[in-house]
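Priority: medium. Attachment 1 of 2:
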């Protein structure tokens, strides 16, 4: 692992909540350089912890019933396994599956349709969505300013007790930027600390042949947008990136998710229609729907026998990162504000 992205070290004696013990963020040498510009939001332990508190606080929603963590649980690689589609205030159901949150510093666009182009403003989307948090950022800022404890915490983080929308959003980014998944068996193999079984090795070869062009290692996604041949859900009528751009070439294009942590982050696809990896693989072998924008990689059939399917799944399971999922520094803060 190589150390990068130095934190600013605050005056630790002022803190009344737990902080990160390390003053760096580590990621493997074989990872590409992050896309996120840390110069505009320099990581700081106090801001990270403030972001974690905010991430778990339902005060961000209209009726204080839904937090970011309600749809992005740490034990599910910050995804939502209880619902195929996002679950919001007043028990409303959204239109898309809540994606897993990790390795966000390497992503240029966010949301399944790429509607958000910067992590520092991404939280505005779920906060303002009427079927998710249903709130206005101005109202959230007002509620935080009404809290003596939050004003204290914002002072510790920003040397200014006046809560602003910019500081709120950047604090959320800081916490999310620490959600780095890079400790799976695959990573141990890459670092020479483990080795694949024969079945996993066969699956890796199949992955490189059939999957790597879109789910590019080591992040296991290009984080680009693609039509993967799913038939349109006749109830949702979701056409992906087209709904943002209104360009015909973007019809049915959705963001390519990472294949890391699949055992924790089900259900799969933008609408959560599949709950098992076998269903996903069967879609790619015999469920592709032809469409003018279908990815060129899927124009020809992917042929796998039952043994090869099992081998591929065996490799995909090496991408599970148990240490990431159960990392205490990612979980609900013990000194949560009441």
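Attachment 2 of 2:
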């Amino acid at each position: 692992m190589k150390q990068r992205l130095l934190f600013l070290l605050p005056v630790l004696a002022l803190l009344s909540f737990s902080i990160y013990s390390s003053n760096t963020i580590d990621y493997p040498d074989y990872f590409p350089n992050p896309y996120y510009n840390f110069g505009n939001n320099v990581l700081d332990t106090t801001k990270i912890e403030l972001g974690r508190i905010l991430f778990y606080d339902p005060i961000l929603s209209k009726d204080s019933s839904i937090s970011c963590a309600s749809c992005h649980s740490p034990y599910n690689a910050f995804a939502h396994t209880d619902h195929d589609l996002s679950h919001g205030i007043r028990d409303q159901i959204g239109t898309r599956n809540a994606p897993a949150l990790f390795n966000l510093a390497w992503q240029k666009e966010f949301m399944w349709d790429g509607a958000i182009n910067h992590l520092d403003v991404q939280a505005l989307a779920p906060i303002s969505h009427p079927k998710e948090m249903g709130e206005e950022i101005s109202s959230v800022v007002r509620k935080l300013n009404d809290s003596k404890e939050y004003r204290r915490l914002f002072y510790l983080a920003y040397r200014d007790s006046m809560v602003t929308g910019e500081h709120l959003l950047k604090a959320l980014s800081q916490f999310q930027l620490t959600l780095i998944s890079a400790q799976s068996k695959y990573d141990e193999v890459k670092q020479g600390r483990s080795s694949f079984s024969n079945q996993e090795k066969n699956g890796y070869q199949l992955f490189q042949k059939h999957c790597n062009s879109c789910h590019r290692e080591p992040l296991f996604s290009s984080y680009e947008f693609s039509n993967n041949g799913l038939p349109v859900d006749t109830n949702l009528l979701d056409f992906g990136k087209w709904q943002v751009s209104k360009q015909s070439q973007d019809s049915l294009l959705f963001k390519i998710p990472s294949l890391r942590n699949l055992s924790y982050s089900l259900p799969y696809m933008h609408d959560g229609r599949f709950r098992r990896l076998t269903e996903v693989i069967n879609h790619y072998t015999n469920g592709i729907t032809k469409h003018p924008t279908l990815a060129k990689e899927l124009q020809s059939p992917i042929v796998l026998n039952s043994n090869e399917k099992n081998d591929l799944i065996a490799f995909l399971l090496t991408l599970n990162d148990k240490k990431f999922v159960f990392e205490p520094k990612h979980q609900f803060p013990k000194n949560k504000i009441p």
